[in-house]
């Protein structure tokens, strides 16, 4: 049951992460952030983390879908 719930909700979770990534991308291009090396580094670190989380979610989604076919 837990995996069924996870499968039903993983796409929405991925979309939320992609939205966060898009917002961070926009923030990283602002002149205020570009002028603040520390802030820019923090944003880039968070972006890398989100990329990794999105990749992991897609892998999990594939795994759950393959399980649900059997």
Q: What does the secondary structure layout of this molecule look like, with pairings?
A:
Layout lengths: L1 H27 L2 H4 L2 H32 L2
Explain the overall architecture.
With 70 residues, this protein is an all-alpha fold. The protein contains three helices and no strands. Helix 1 packs antiparallel against helix 3. The model has no long low-confidence stretch (mean pLDDT 95).
Provide the β-strand percentage band. Answer: under 5%
The largest sheet, given as strand count, sense and whether it forms a barrel, is:
none
Summed over residues and divided by their number, the pLDDT gives a mean of 95
**How far apart, in Å, are the first and last alpha carbons?**
14 Å
Helical proportion? Answer: over 70%
Which regions are unreliable across 5 or more consecutive residues at pLDDT < 50? none
Based on CA atoms alone, the radius of gyration comes out at: 16 Å
What class would the helix/strand composition place it in?
A: mainly alpha
Tally the helices: what do you get? 3
> Could you give the order of the helices and strands?
HHH
How many E strands? Answer: 0
Overall shape = elongated
Summarize the structure.
The protein has 70 residues and is mainly α. The protein is 90% helix and 0% strand.
What structural keywords apply?
mainly alpha, 3 helices, single chain, elongated, 70 residues
């Amino acid at each position: 049951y837990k995996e069924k719930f996870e499968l039903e909700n993983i796409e929405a979770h991925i979309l939320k992460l992609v939205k966060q990534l898009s917002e961070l991308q926009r923030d990283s291009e602002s002149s205020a952030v570009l002028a603040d090396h520390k802030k820019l580094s923090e944003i880039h670190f968070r972006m890398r983390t989100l990329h990794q989380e999105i990749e992991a979610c897609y892998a999990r989604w594939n795994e759950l879908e393959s399980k649900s076919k059997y």
